[in-house]
Structure formats: structure tokens, C-alpha cells
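Researcher: We plan to redesign the surface later, but first we want a full-length starting point. C-alpha cells attached.
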């Protein structure tokens, strides 16, 4: 029996069971994440109001499946049989277009050529000034207005920008600087191992385990180490919880919270 099953059995906590492999998880969210990551497809999250079919919608908004959707098929302005035919105002050739778009004026061949059909783009005209990439010193030409916009200078590629950041935006110059590195101490590794064993090497938020991750999960401090006068005081079993790398990052960012159930 896993640690999760033992806790749920002892405290009568309802669990969610994966319909594919039977794995038990504490939350529906965790079960859905598990099914998507492990079995390669998301579980249905919507029920069609027309026929009762369960289906998956990434945004969880649709109320009808594709077959019952009242805006699909012939009811949709982009339905293939709803196309109309007209003549190109430039070359005279007939072409089909969807009436839900703008009135058809030009065929696709004339649009692809775009010779005289489109107005000139003002961004392509005007004076340019020469600047140099701050990382590799390559020459660039930019509009004068950008000289005031780019407070960090100009870079020819994202790679150059990243290299410059790595060398210059570090330590106290970084926006997340909080005073330098922390020494966790020797006790941390013992507490970390005990936390992993207590939690069955399984993320206590989404349920993914070490076998699925291919490595041990992270161990998160509920109360940050920096908030303690002595780092060793933060290393207690009540203050740590096992999380996968993804959930750990989201907790640190504040986009999710570790609930009371997850902390058991």
C-alpha cells in the first residue's frame, strides 16, 4: 500500500482513480494531469448538451460536441457549401470566397502577387541609423525612434541578448536579488530524504511520481528559508513537502497554492 492510499484509508479521504491504469490520486486536478502526462491524452471535461457525449475542450467552454454544435456545418458562415463565386476586379478570373469575410474582390493569385494592391507600409520606409549589437558588435540598422525605446541597447539575436543578460544582469543587478546565496547546511539532505520517503517520492499536488518523472521530485519549503534567522531552523518535516519541478515552480511563482490536503 502506498503512502497516499494509507493516509486516505486512515482519514477517510476520497480519492480519484485513473480510469486507464487505476492509480489513485488525491485531487481531480492531479488525476487529470497524471492522465495527460502518463497516458498521452486528456480526459473529457465537458458533456454535450445535445447528445450527452463527454468530450475534451482545452478551454472548457464548449457546451456542444462537434456533431451537435448549432454553429457548425451549414449554420457556419465558413461552411464549404456556403461559398460564393465572383470575378476578380484585377484579372477578371472567377474565384470562390466565404461570404462571412469581406466581399470578394481579388483572386488568390493577384493577392499573392500583391502588385499595386496593397498600400506601402510606412514602417519599411524612412531613415535608419546604424547601431551595434552589445554582445557581438554586429552592425544593425534601426529606426531613430527605437534609440529611446531600447534602454539596454540593441542585440542582433535572442542568443546575443541572453548571453549579455547572463554576464551583466546578475547578483545585485538582478530584479529578484535577495541578498546572495544561502547555505542550507548538512541537516537539509537528511530532511529532504525523509520528506521524499514520507511522501512516497510523489508530488503532493499533481500526483506524478519519481518513476514517471525519471528523477526524484523536488522538496519545497512551505515557509522560505530566507525568512529564518538560521537556515537549519527551516528544515523540519512540517515545513517541507514533495513537489514535482513543474508544481514547485508554480508554487514559487504564486500561481498555485499548496492546499491543506496536499500538505498531509
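Model: Full-length starting sequence:
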Amino acid at each position: 500500500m502506498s503512502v497516499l492510499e494509507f493516509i486516505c484509508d486512515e482519514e477517510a479521504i476520497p480519492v480519484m482513480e485513473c480510469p486507464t491504469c487505476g492509480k489513485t490520486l488525491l485531487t481531480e486536478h492531479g488525476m487529470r494531469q497524471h492522465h495527460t502526462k502518463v497516458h498521452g491524452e486528456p480526459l473529457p471535461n465537458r458533456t454535450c448538451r445535445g447528445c450527452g457525449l463527454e468530450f475534451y475542450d482545452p478551454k472548457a467552454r464548449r457546451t456542444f460536441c462537434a456533431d451537435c454544435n448549432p454553429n457548425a456545418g451549414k449554420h457556419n458562415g465558413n461552411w464549404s457549401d456556403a461559398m460564393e463565386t465572383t470575378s476578380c476586379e484585377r484579372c477578371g478570373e472567377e474565384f470562390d470566397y466565404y461570404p462571412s469575410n469581406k466581399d470578394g474582390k481579388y483572386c488568390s493569385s493577384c493577392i499573392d502577387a500583391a502588385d499595386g494592391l496593397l498600400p506601402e507600409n510606412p514602417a519599411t520606409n524612412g531613415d535608419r541609423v546604424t547601431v551595434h549589437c552589445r554582445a557581438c558588435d554586429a552592425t544593425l540598422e534601426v529606426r531613430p525612434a527605437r534609440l529611446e525605446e531600447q534602454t539596454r541597447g540593441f542585440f542582433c539575436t535572442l542568443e546575443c541578448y541572453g548571453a549579455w543578460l547572463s554576464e551583466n544582469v546578475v547578483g545585485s543587478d538582478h530584479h529578484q536579488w535577495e541578498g546572495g546565496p544561502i547555505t542550507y547546511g548538512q541537516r537539509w539532505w537528511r530532511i529532504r530524504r525523509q520528506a521524499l520517503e514520507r511522501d512516497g517520492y510523489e508530488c503532493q499536488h499533481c500526483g506524478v511520481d519519481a518513476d514517471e518523472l525519471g528523477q526524484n521530485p523536488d522538496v519545497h519549503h512551505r515557509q522560505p528559508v530566507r525568512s529564518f534567522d538560521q537556515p537549519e531552523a527551516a528544515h523540519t518535516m512540517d515545513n517541507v513537502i514533495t513537489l514535482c519541478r513543474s508544481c514547485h515552480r508554480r508554487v514559487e511563482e504564486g500561481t498555485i497554492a499548496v492546499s491543506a490536503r496536499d500538505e498531509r
